[in-house]
Amino acid sequence: MSTAAAKVGVNASAASNETGYRTFKLGSFTFRRDEYFAHIDWTVKGKTMTHIMSADAFLTAMMRDVAWGFFYGWVNFDSMIGTRNRYGKVDMYAGRYAPAYHERGLDLVEQFETPEILATFKAILADWTNEGFDPFAAPEETGKAWVGKKRGNNDAAIDRQRQSCKRMPGLPGDAELRTDANGYPVNRAFADVTQEEPVVNAAPGFENEIHAMNLFAYLSRSDVTWNPSVSSVCGRSLFCPTTEEYILPIKHGNDRVEWFVQFSDEIEWEVEDKETGLPRAKLTMKPGDVAAMPADIRHQGFSRKRSMLLVWENATPELPDMYETGKLKPYPVEF
Ligand code: PHB
Ligand code: FE
After folding, report:
1. How far away, in angstroms, is 250 Cα from ligand 2 center?
2. Which sequence spans correspond to the domains of the chain?
C-alpha cells in the first residue's frame, strides 16, 4: 500500500505562516485547518460551498477511514462529508446525503483511484495531527493537543495499522498475543478481566491445529477505541472484536448486513436512514445482546464506559450489488 501511495502525487500548499498547517486539494475539494477547525470547501454551480468541523472530529474520522482502507460502504465524517468505497476506487462526497444540499444540486461527488485519495488523506492526517494527540485513543487517554497551531506530529499513532490475524491469535504463525512485554497493558477500564488462558490438551501431532484463547483478556489489552481488528477468518466470515469508549467518530453507512454482539458494558446506537439521515431507531445494547444492523442504514455508537463489542462482517464481494439491486432485503430476518 505504501509503495503505491508513494507514487501518487499529493497536492499540498506550503505550511501557512499563520497556523503552520498545510492546505490540501483533492479534485474539486479543498481541505484547510486552523487552530480549532477543519474546513472543507467545494465548488458547484460556480459557487464555493464551505463546511466546518471541529479538527478532532475530523481527524478521528479520517483516521478510521485511512486505517480501515475505506471500510465497507460509506464512512460519513458527519452528516455532510464522507467517502464511499467502490472497492478499487473511492467516492468523496459533500452534501450528497444531506437532502437540503442534494435536492438543490449543491452537493458534490467525485471519484478517485484508491491510492490517490489514500495518499492525500494520509498526508492530511500526518500534517494536521500534533505531537501528543492520538486520534485512535479515548478522550481521557489523549491530550487536547489537537487544539492550536501546528506542533510536531504523531506519526507513530497514525501509522498504526488495524491488526489482521492470519490464524487465530496465539496459534503459531500469527501475531503474538498481546502482553505487557509487547507494550499492551490491560486497560484501566478492564482491570477486573481475568487474564487466565484456557488449558488445551491437544493429542500428539495436533498441537498446531487446536487452540483456545481468552478473547476477553485479548480485548482488555486493546490500546485503541472504535477500531475493529479481524481476529478470525472463516471463509467470508470475519470476526472483528473491538473496544469502544466515547463516540464512534464516524457514522457508518452499511452496504451489507452486519451483526453486533455486545460482550461487555453498554453501547447506545443511533440508527438513521442511510440516504436522508432521518432517525430510524435507537438501540441500547447490554452484555449478551445481539443485533443485526441493516444494509440501508447509517449508525453511530455511544459508549459511556469502555466496552467490548464483536462486529461480525460478511466479506462476500457480491453483497453490495445484491442489496443495491434488491436481490436481497436490507435485513436478514423477517419476524
Ligand atoms: C460499524 O460501523 O459497524 C462499526 C465500526 C467500528 C466500530 C464498531 C462498529 O468500532
Ligand atoms: Fe456498520
Report:
1. 10
2. 3-158, 180-223+225-324
136 within ligand 1 shell (Cβ under 6 A): no
Locate the DSSP E strands across the chain. 11-12, 24-26, 29-33, 37-44, 47-54, 74-76, 81-85, 89-94, 108-113, 232-234, 237-247, 251-253, 258-262, 267-273, 279-285, 290-293, 297-314
pLDDT for the residue 114: 97
Which ligand is closest to the CA of 226, given by its number? Answer: 1
Average pLDDT in the 288-294 region?
A: 97
**Going by C-beta distance under 8 Å and a sequence separation of 6 or more, which residues neighbour residue 169?**
175, 177, 213, 218, 231
What is the model's pTM?
0.93
- pLDDT > 90: what percent of the chain? 82
pLDDT at 3 over 50: no
170 Rama sector, left if φ>0, alpha if ψ -120 to 50, beta otherwise: left
Which cell numbers hold the place of 18? 499563520
Whether 242 is in the pocket of ligand 1, judged by its Cβ within 6 Å, is yes
Confidence of residue 182 (pLDDT cuts 50, 70, 90): confident
| Ligand 1 atom at minimum distance from 228 CA | 10
Q: Report the SS3 class of residue 284.
A: strand
At the fourth CATH level, the homologous superfamily of domain 180-223+225-324 is: Jelly Rolls (2.60.120.10)
* Averaged pLDDT for residues 224-252: 93
